Amino acid sequence: MTDFIADQPAVQCFLSFTHADDGLLNFVTPLKASIEQFCAAAHGRKIEIFVDRESIGWGEDWRAKIQDGLDAAMVLIPAVTMNYFYNSSACREELTAFYAKANELGLTQLILPLIILGRDLITENSDDANVRIIEKLQHIDIEEAVLAGSGTTAWRRTMAAVAKKLIKAIQSAENQLERLSEPEPARTGDGGLPGFQEHRNRLEQVARLLGQQLDTITVSLGGITAEMNQAAADIDVTSPDAAKERIARTADTIKPLSVSMQKAGTDFEATVAETDTIMRSYLAFVASHGSPEMAAQARKEQEAFVPALDELQTMEKTIAEYLRSAYALEKRSAPLRAALQPLRIGAQSIQLGIRTLQDLQDL
Known about the structure:
This protein is mostly helical. 70% of the residues lie in helices and 6% in strands. The chain is flat, with a radius of gyration of 23 Å.
């Protein structure tokens, strides 16, 4: 006999985590099982949690698949520690890409961050755009439960709370998606086509924002490089004690520039993810509704982002060479190492933004 209820498709959830964190705390397998079971037992909802891009069917074309997932009320569950932000490019990419599309559709409730470690660093004033994304979402602190371990009272109570919030988010998104499926009054854009000009306006906005962020990065990097080069020259002709003092002064000088570069770099990463989302939507919109002339215009606007890639890749190489040259001084000075850490974070974000732009070029 067919079991019609059991055969219904599960709501898909994607658990985004670092393997380093799972190796330390061994939480992924019990977390997946507990949330799935509590959702079924307490709420009568069938969910399935996937733990990598391949198992969920995203594969290499995962950015393009996010739209389909959101249309089905798929949930992204970031398992957050500081490793999530600073030791995993995959996690940063997943968060920025999913958030950009969810934000465009008004479905950010479909991101449910679980804070495992580092709660005190998740603040709205962070210099990292991804940290600020997590802070403003409906995150849940599960540190106590993870440290207590699966099977404990703390674990069971926390998993019940997570399941409750997850089901609430899914129901809210399903209701919203039902409303979005209803026909809307037409909005007139260029050529009488609803929405055409809206897409173009949004592209112009993000292009201006990208330009501002890159200007900040260029100025900050130039200031840091000039100061470090001067410090290196001074150290070559001075005593060990004077060299130590000179390195300390250098750290004080470059710290604000390094922080500025971190903020601009992580903002750039988030803005590129938004650009990718808008451009994919724009090209799909024109392909299904527009004229050949509109399609040509859309392609021209897509290509306008491409020349920046050469400049960005040159910048990435410059940063890499600079950090290699600064390594010896970093190694011998804790203040300098701390001063350059934000620069390294910003550089990672720039690198990820470049990767996204390369994908955009291939659309």
